[in-house]
Design goal:
- It is built from 17 helices and no strands.
- The longest helix is centred in the C-terminal third of the chain and has 18 residues.
- The chain is mainly α.
- The protein is globular, with a radius of gyration of 24 Å.
Length: 330
């Protein structure tokens, strides 16, 4: 059974959450007819806004930024929903998005877009939330709207490519990534995502070429082990088990708790018949999968097979029982 799987790279947040907060604050100021009390919550927010605006941010990362976002959303919540403006809906939506509350994000973006159907990033983030929730068809519709209004948006092209890949339209996904690369040819994540789709199409050499380009595009430290992991996947697809093993080992050298990479190393050793090397890798996979029942159940199953090959029948029985307990089906 071929259990090795690709790891998908998603593009980071498109804009700083501060942009959203600025929109909200400016909109509030525009309709205000009085100067706020310097000790009021609004005045304190404005002061924080001034300090934060001196430095860039991708998402709220420090206490001050998070406190600002909390204060802004609390102000909005204190008002009846029936009088929220589009910008207030978008601020609440973005807060829900970065908090992982994707259903609420979708609802807020939908309500905001009814009031302002030309807020392009509302479609982008709603599409991203839908994609995360595996609602790929409606996500693609949202990315289509972004691209209708802003044709060269590489973020929407990347998001649509990921969504297309998840519904099996690998060629369509490759096409979206290729367009994005033509617009901006130095984004590591997009090369990685195109490579993933090429692997799914069986173009393993093309995938490896893309992964190598991705490594030259200054990827973040988080992405590098994933790229090596995926090169291992492509090498395995070519039938080059030693090449796969080499790249999985690089991945765990870079990220020692990489559960999938440990499992794949054990899996390759198992396929090669080197059972004593496979066993500790399945041990590590089980350790690092933690609460991931699906990953753990598969790792226990392959440790059962490995122990059986080594004649460790008591351990094998324990592992198969644990695998079934966690829901693995042969």
């Amino acid at each position: 059974m071929h259990l090795i799987k690709l790891q998908i790279i998603k593009y980071p947040l498109k804009y700083s959450f501060i942009v959203v907060v600025i929109i909200f604050i400016l909109a509030s100021m525009a309709i205000s007819e009085t100067v706020p009390d310097p000790d009021s919550l609004e005045a304190k927010i404005s002061k924080l806004m001034y300090e934060i605006s001196k430095k860039p941010a991708i998402e709220p990362t420090d206490f001050t930024e998070k406190a600002l976002l909390i204060m802004v959303t609390n102000i909005i919540k204190s008002k009846p929903k029936s009088i929220w403006t589009a910008n207030e809906y978008f601020c609440m939506a973005f807060n829900s998005f970065i908090s992982g509350e994707y259903e609420h994000a979708i609802e807020y973006y939908t309500d905001g877009l009814k009031l302002d159907p030309y807020y392009i990033d509302g479609y982008y983030y709603r599409g991203s939330a839908r994609s995360i929730k595996s609602e790929y068809i409606t996500a693609i519709e949202d990315y289509n709207k972004v691209l209708e209004l802003r044709p060269n948006d590489i973020y929407a092209l990347n998001g649509r490519g990921i969504a297309k890949g998840n519904i099996g339209d690998y060629s369509g996904a490759v096409n979206d990534f290729e367009i994005a690369i033509q617009i901006k040819p130095d984004v590591s994540e997009i090369y990685t995502n195109r490579a993933n789709q090429k692997s799914k199409l069986g173009d393993y050499n093309g995938a490896i070429d893309d992964y190598k380009i991705a490594l030259k595009c200054n990827p973040s430290s988080y992405i590098i082990p994933i790229i090596y992991y995926n090169i291992g996947y492509a090498e395995y697809g070519k039938g080059n088990l030693l090449g796969a093993l080499e790249n999985y080992i690089i991945a765990i050298d870079l990220k020692s708790d990489y559960a999938d990479a440990h499992f794949n190393i054990g899996f390759v050793y198992f396929k090669l018949g080197i059972y004593r090397n496979a066993l500790p890798e399945f041990d590590n996979a089980i350790k690092y999968y933690g609460e991931n029942r699906k990953g753990s159940s598969v790792a226990y199953y392959y440790r059962y097979l490995t122990n059986k090959e080594l004649g460790n029948y008591i351990d094998a029985k324990r592992d198969i029982d644990k695998s079934k307990e966690l829901g693995y089906e042969e």
